[in-house]
Design goal:
By secondary structure, this protein is an alpha+beta fold. It folds into two domains: 90 residues, Phosphorylase Kinase, domain 1 (2-Layer Sandwich), CATH 3.30.200.20; 194 residues, Aminoglycoside phosphotransferase (APH), C-terminal lobe (Aminoglycoside 3'-phosphotransferase, Chain: A, domain 2, Alpha-Beta Complex), CATH 3.90.1200.10. 47% of the residues lie in helices and 13% in strands. A hairpin with a 4-residue loop joins strand 7 and strand 8. Helix 5 runs antiparallel to helix 8, helix 5 packs parallel to helix 10 and helix 7 packs across helix 8. The protein starts with a helix and ends in a 5-residue tail after the last helix. 36% of the residues are buried.
Amino acid sequence: MSAGRVDDALALVSLWKGTEPKVSQLSGGLTNENYLVEAGGKRYVMRIPGQSTELLSINRDNEVYNTKAAATTGIAPMVLEHVPGLDVLVLEFIPGPTMSSRTLQSSQMVARMASSFRRLHGSPRFLEDFDMFRLIEYYLGIVDEQIITIPAGYRDWLPTIATIERALSVASLPSVPCHNDLLCENFIDDGEALRIVDYELSGNNDPCFDLGNTAQEAELDQDRRAALCSAYFGREDERQLARMNLFALMSDIGWTLWGAIQSRISNVEFDFVDYYTGRWERALGVLNSGHFPAWLEEATAQNKV
């Protein structure tokens, strides 16, 4: 990102007017650029959106509204200022380590993630809904419009994707405020809770999507997935575990297209081709495995409690 755009953003924020803010770029972030701003003895996070993110179906008004809603539970950072013209967000700085797939691989962390999800899902209702199946349809439209390369054979699996959607509808749960994009790096341990940041794809959704999405991002094995499901629901639930696993699969299927679009539009230095290729290969591995039909059967079984 150009220094000029960062300077423009800094100049428009009222929080540090009259001071000389010190700015340093934060690592991570595949869509936006994040900066640590130190001014007046305080620390802030300033988020500047990436280019053409509307093609990713990101609504910045939705993001601001939902971040504020989730912050009422203490799980999201507080929105301290929003500059609408540039869609610059100034957020509470959360001190503590950023998580990774390695640091989330424990029973204690799985229980803490479940606790964070219960708080997030108890937020005031978000502004818009999120549906991965509709998002895939939207992304395929962008792919056609922009003539973007996607993995060969992707569309051959659309009937199977429709089957997954039908299976997930059998025991669907009431929609709740969900994050929907739970990269491990979106968890920050403040010493008391695993706080959750970055709400640009947030929306009301089936809570099992968040469980499945984070299980996929954190590369949790089936034992850890079962533990996360049980910790969230307060009991073992094989049907919701199967639904969680199907949503984990749908995360890879959907974010494959996200990565393909990003490979065309993003100015972030990141290998998006490797990202979406890896996502799709992992999805194919699951689709062609014995787990997949078993999850479909469990999700749609009759006379389940």
